[in-house]
Amino acid sequence: MLVSKISQKGQVTIPKKIREALRAKPGDMIEYEVQGNIVVLRRAGPFDRAFHAALADTLTEWSAPEDEEAFRDL
Questions:
Q1: How does strand 38-43 pair with strand 30-35?
Q2: pTM to 2 decimals?
Q3: DSSP assignment string, 41-52
Q4: Is the dihedral of CA 65, 63, 35, 20 positive or negative?
Q5: I need a surface site. Which of 3, 21, 50, 69 has the fewest CB within 10 A?
């Protein structure tokens, strides 16, 4: 079992063995799926990246600094 520590910003470094298993490299998008008390990580495929890119500019009303502050501790 591999373990990571959550940073003050809520960030986690994905261990090298996991990145290698996913064939993930810098800039790749990672998809998270919650299944009860388990989180599944997978490298996002081309369709996932295209879908995310299409939505990226549509959700800007929640990207103000005040919103980031309000959502930080959720």
A1: antiparallel
A2: 0.56
A3: EEE--HHHHHHH
A4: negative
A5: 3
Give, in degrees to the nearest 5, the angle at Cα 26 between 36 and 68: 60
Segment 54-58 mean pLDDT:
65
Residue 29: which of 37, 41, 17 has the closest Cα? 41
Q: What is the residue extent of each domain of the chain? A: 16-71
What is the token pair recorded at 31?
A: 């998809």
| Better-predicted residue by pLDDT, 20 or 74 | 20
Task: State how far the Cα of 74 lies from the Cα of 54, in Å rounded to an integer.
Answer: 26
Q: Which are the contacts of 13, defined by CB distance < 8 A and separation ≥ 6?
A: 4
